[in-house]
Design brief:
Blueprint (H helix, E strand, L loop, with lengths): L6 H6 E5 L4 H16 L4 E7 L9 H27 L8 E7 L2 H9 L2 E7 L13 H9 L4 E4 L14 E5 L6 H14 L3 E6 L15 H22 L5 E6 L4 H8 L4 E5 L13 H9 L4 E4 L6
Parallel strand pairs: 1-2, 1-4, 2-3, 4-5, 6-7, 6-9, 7-8, 9-10
Antiparallel strand pairs: 5-10
Helix pairs in contact: 2-3, 4-5
């Protein structure tokens, strides 16, 4: 959520973690557009993450570290140029080079950020790879929303003009994701599509004559409408379209995400438990979401 709270967060703002890959460049530019939309500072960071060869000493070790730093500095320079291409000249942009592995470095800084933005894969990862270890760790152990930008190279016309889409399941764990999606829909002047799944079990073909599906559907639709009423009062300018589905939500979310500007889900939902790495829905979407995906951690988990 884009909140102006505290000096540290005001300094970090939107945090883009880069590594020199094409995916990271697109993520940095997308982060800059978000920072511009919400009038937030932009921080771009890169970690010197490769280990120094064992046995390296003296000038060899120094040369190796200098080479690593040089690569990170070039990555930061390219990312900053990509970001400034969509920002006003006076917009605050800061670059940071972290010494050491990226996961602990980003986790430490991300606590003071509004949002952490990454590409869907880094250097050396294939297009078919799942979300990398850095992304998984940030979602599992960080406390800020994480945006994963897939296959976007920086052309604003490819951002989409469709809705913001959010997946909910009726649990309180979804409230932060719902609030985030409403803030984004309002800022973008977009419609919000709320996809509510009242079961994460595939029910197609299930022989359960004692269950009256239409009755359950009507009940869940009423529950969703009631839960959204308070949010609609807070965001009166946002048109909310809702859909209730009765099986695993991934395919429904992906259907809505085809022309979406943004897809938002919670870290875990009904049936999840504290300490779970990544919920099944968010994990599946990390593999397949065609638009930028934001996973919002529930504050009560910490």
């Amino acid at each position: 959520m884009m909140r102006h709270a505290g000096n540290a967060r005001a300094q970090v703002g939107v945090l883009a973690a880069v590594d020199g890959s094409v995916a990271a460049l697109g993520a940095a530019r997308w982060a800059a557009l978000l920072a511009r939309r919400h009038d937030r500072p932009l921080t771009i960071g890169c970690a010197v993450q490769l280990p120094v060869p064992s046995g390296a000493a003296g000038s060899t070790r120094t040369e190796f570290l200098d080479a690593l730093r040089g690569r990170c500095e070039r990555a930061l320079g390219r990312a900053e140029s990509a970001a400034r291409g969509v920002l006003d000249a006076e917009h605050p942009v800061r670059t940071v080079l972290w010494e050491g592995p990226p996961i602990p470095a980003i986790l430490e800084v991300s606590g003071d950020a509004d949002l952490v933005v990454l590409g869907d894969r880094g250097l050396g990862e294939s297009p078919q790879s799942a979300a990398g270890s850095v992304t998984s760790a940030l979602i599992a152990y960080g406390d800020r929303p994480v945006a994963v930008v897939r296959g976007w190279t920086g052309a604003e016309e490819n951002l989409g003009s469709g809705p913001v889409v959010v997946g909910v399941d009726g649990s309180a764990h979804c409230n932060p994701a719902l609030e985030f999606s409403l803030i984004e829909a309002q800022a973008r002047g977009a419609e919000l599509a709320v996809v509510h799944a009242w079961s994460d079990v595939p029910l197609t073909g299930l022989d359960a004559p004692h269950l009256q599906w239409e009755t359950v559907q009507q009940r869940e639709d009423a529950v969703l409408a009631e839960s959204l009423a308070g949010w609609q009062e807070q965001f009166p300018g946002v048109t909310i379209r809702r859909e209730v589905v009765h099986d695993r939500p991934v395919r429904h979310l992906l259907r809505h995400a085809d022309d979406a500007q943004l897809l938002v889900v919670g870290h875990r939902g009904r049936g999840g438990f504290t300490g779970m790495m990544v919920g099944s829905t968010s994990r599946a979407l990390l593999h397949a979401a065609p638009c930028p995906l934001v996973v919002v951690r529930d504050a009560v988990e910490h």
